[in-house]
Amino acid sequence: xxxxxxxxxxxxxxxxxxxxxxxxxxxxxxxxxxxxxxxxxxxxxxxxxxxxxxxxxxxxxxxxxxxxxxxxxxxxxxxxxxxxxxxxxxxxxxxxxxxxxxxxxxxxxxxxxxxxxxxxxxxxxxxxxxxxxxxxxxxxxxxxxxxxxxxxxxxxxxxxxxxxxxxxxxxxxxxxxxxxxxxxxxxxxxxxxxxxxxxxxxxxxxxxxxxxxxxxxxxxxxxxxxxxxxx
Length: 231
Fold this sequence. Notes:
mainly alpha, 2 domains, 11 helices
């Protein structure tokens, strides 16, 4: 905190707190090391609030933290970075995991992550009726029907026979996949959707303006994504 305040006082170039202006804060922002900018700003905001409360300094803190340059919407920026950094890794991991999925329940879990973007925590709780409200591709639908025929309680938590708890689900999945974490499967599915001009199943804030222009997933357009077991 002391380093941040010393830098601010140097850039403010004024003798008294009552002489502070928004320009002083902007000069401080421009001088901040990029890696430390967020923490430095937080410390200086605390310092300025202290001065406003105790010494009637002018309120020079903006409603939003000033930025050095315009940036892309968070969702678009995050997904561009994800596509560049993780695409090859996730594709290779997903192909390797798919080759290890031999049983119907393993393949159904895999496709729920890859096609529907569901997390293991959600799969622990989900019911078949909720799954069938989603765009279920034909290969996944056949697997779900196979599991329903042998399920001891098809109206309850659908994956409970294999995932009785969230903690156990992650451990079980790692055994099935040979150590590949489940988010890699969902990430590969999102990448495949974007490459095929389909809006990935993520929250509205994470989509960004670019992804919001893509059509939502449907049974028909999900047919463009890879079929992993030769269906």
